[in-house]
Amino acid sequence: LSIIAIFVFALGFGIATFSRDPPTGYAILVLFSIVLVFVAYPLFEAVRLTFVHEGRFSLAIWKEILTNRQYLSALAGSIELGVWTATISTIIGFLFAFFVSRTSMRGKKFVTGLATLPVISPPFSLTLSIILLFGNNGLITKGLLGLENFSIYGLTGLTIVQTISMFPIAFLTLAGVLDAIDSTLEDASLDLNASRWQTFM
Q1: Cα(96)–Cα(8) distance, integer angstroms
Q2: What is the DSSP-derived secondary structure letter of residue 24?
Q3: What is the pTM of this model?
Q4: What is the phi/psi pair of residue 195, to 5°?
Q5: Do 123 and 158 form a contact (C-beta atoms < 8 A)?
Q6: What's the sign of the alpha-carbon dihedral 40, 42, 47, 52?
Q7: Beta carbons within 8 Å of 22's beta carbon, 6+ residues apart
Q8: Which of 45, 68, 111, 117 lies most in the core, judged by the most C-beta atoms within 10 Å?
Q9: Which of 161, 165, 169, 167 is nearest to 87 (CA)?
């Protein structure tokens, strides 16, 4: 932490001496310091402690992790969840972005607001609503459909929750990309006798 403090002090001195806009420089420095102290340093310490066993350098913790089937199973499950979530979120985000950017549909502002709503809402509220609607005693599963042995818990439920919470990021990114593409390129493609599918691809 003392090294971080010296580094931040040196940056502050540099901003005061050489910067054209010191208030902006100090604001960036404060944000950088917060991220460094509360995110980067704890992560560094967590990784460093995996190489320390009884006060000495050791790979025993990594050997335990890489040879234990439970840890490897958890890692494989996390990777599988990440792949499913990223793929489905990107597809749904692209569909939203395409319809908002490239079609003449009505209510684009409403759709954009609806798509970005999961980013604004607290993370636990989405999870809680999925459980209350589709859980073992959920309003939809048991109340409306009368399902007895249906379970939302597991990979499927996690994928649904993660996809709903992550697709707005894909939507906002891809909407910006699609808006930046010049529409005359698509017109030129159609003028050169390409099909709509070829133009889309």
Answers
A1: 43
A2: H
A3: 0.69
A4: -75, 165
A5: no
A6: positive
A7: 15, 16
A8: 111
A9: 167
